[in-house]
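Researcher: Going back to the complex we discussed earlier. I've cleaned up the inputs and rechecked each line, so this should be the final set. Can you rerun the prediction on the complete assembly and write out the structure?
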Amino acid sequence: MSAPVIEIAGVKKVYRMGETDVFALRGVDLTVNAGELLAVMGSSGSGKSTLMNILGCLDVPTAGSYVLDGIRVDGMSRNELADLRNKKLGFVFQGFNLLPRTSAVENVELPLLYDRTGRWTNPRALAVEALERVGLGERLEHQPSELSGGQQQRVAIARALVTQPTLLLADEPTGNLDSKTSVEVMALFQALNEQGITVIIVTHEPDIAQYAHRVIDVRDGRIMKDHVVATPRRAADDVLTMDAEARVAEFGDAKEAA
Amino acid sequence: MKTKALLAMATGSILKNKMRTMLTMLGIVIGVGAVIVMVAVGNGAQKQIEVQIKNLGTNLIVVTPGSTAAGGASQGAQTFNRLTVADADKIKSDATLLSAVSPVIVTRTQIITGKGNWRTEINGVSTDYLTIRDWGVTSGSLFTDDDVRAKRKVAVLGATIVKNLFPDSDPVGSQIQLGHVPFTVIGVLDAKGQTSSGVDQDDIVLVPYTTAQDRLSGMVFLGQILASASSPQNMVAAQEEIRGIMRDSHGLLGGGADDFTVRDQTAIAQAATSTTSVMTGLLAAIASISLVVGGIGIMNIMLVSVTERTREIGIRMAVGARGSDVLTQFLVESVVMSLLGGVVGLALGFGGAAILGHVMGWSTATPLIAVFVAVGFSAAVGMFFGYYPARKAAALDPIQALRYE
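Model: Rerun complete. Updated structure for the full complex:
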């Protein structure tokens, strides 16, 4: 087995709110190996968002160590964190977070423009390729306002993929989507995971977590449960089932109308 | 991040808010336009003055009475601070570097003819006067040395007076009255036009200075002595020579300050041009205040823009933008905006100056340097007023920026 993608030990995060200290994380240990599809569950205030921010190198822990893909993250400066995010991470958010009035392909291109290593020779071609990978090859020049929620989230996923990150981090990726689109997006995550990308999904919906291979529960700043799902549901199968059910319902409506 | 991508990004986001961008730019447009127009008008005036000073006469040297008597009574009693015909004669006879010398007596009086009357300036001068002023007559002739010696009552009229009193006849040979004294018109001067200060040089009557002293002003003293240096190279030496003669004539050889002033036209020219250049500077300074106001407008809009685009900043940071990337982006946006405004203002300023010149009949000239200064200045304004909002954007925390609603 290769080295773990994520290795955190004894991670604590304390926020000062006026006079009092708020303990968001009280000592978290977690190891995620390459190729995992992990769901982080927890209610609001559990500390899962803080954990997500630390895993995403948007924030640094107050105490404890974080090693991402062999690189020590804790103690890094703002600029080092920015470069690391660009090189190693892809983000997918609940609110899609696309740039408004900017075409899909330009949105996907964005992370490539902030590259400092000079890895990419043709950002536009890579962006087109990433959009084709999420099934939006026909929507390159569409602006976010001209796309449905599911399509917008696919653009966001393409943007996360385009830098070929070590880790894909999704924060409530289905929170703003209807149930069928949610399952479609989960099918996309599963497909990408099968292609070898490590994916971490933060969610509070058990329905979504059941598509993961491993689920951890965060409560009061600690990991309470960490279990492997023996046979996760296949989202692609559920999509097919839902399509079939929709057709039956339509048929029923038509019959009633007749 | 590559420069090309940065510029494309900046212009892209500027173009997304066309109306706002245009209104923001307007401040810079007006500022730069105003500076250009002001400099053009001021510069044009300066050029015009230079031309007019050349018109004053060739190698002109002016001797005027000094003002050393202003010190007090005791000094006034001992100083002899008036110009006399004797001074002029002494300069004429002793100086070696002068080609012509003329005393000038100035008085104002009413001209009366059979057809009307006109109040004007009478200059009592010698026959050298027209040589010094580089002036000619259109009809008739100037009086002679003989006329001067004999104190004859003859007059040469300026073009403005002819136009007003003899609209459709040649005045040469006719009789006029200056005050109560009858004179014969013997010549008409070339039209010379206005001076830079708007004085009509043609509103003048020339008479022999001897006649003027005797019959018109009753004054012994001269308003000034005009002289012409024999060549431009001799200007400085000629003035020194005049000064020496004057000091001798006024009994100042033992010491004491000059009680007269010797000036040449370069001194007059310098005074006039420095006045206009001060005016030009003042106008440009006032105009550049609007540039500063325009810059504040840019800062205001950039601050609004940073707040509005907090989430965008968060997204950019999440995908790997450093604080410096965000700073550069916003800075480039404000500089591009103010530079665009500067270029538009430049065009507007040139257009405005051309229209002003056409409508008001002013001569305008914009030096090339003003173009570079205006463009450079507007870029600097964008940089200066864009920095604070840009730094604010760069200092945002990515987590909070992403959550911003």
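Model: Worth noting: Residues 67-258 of chain B form one domain.
Researcher: Good, that matches what I expected from the previous run.
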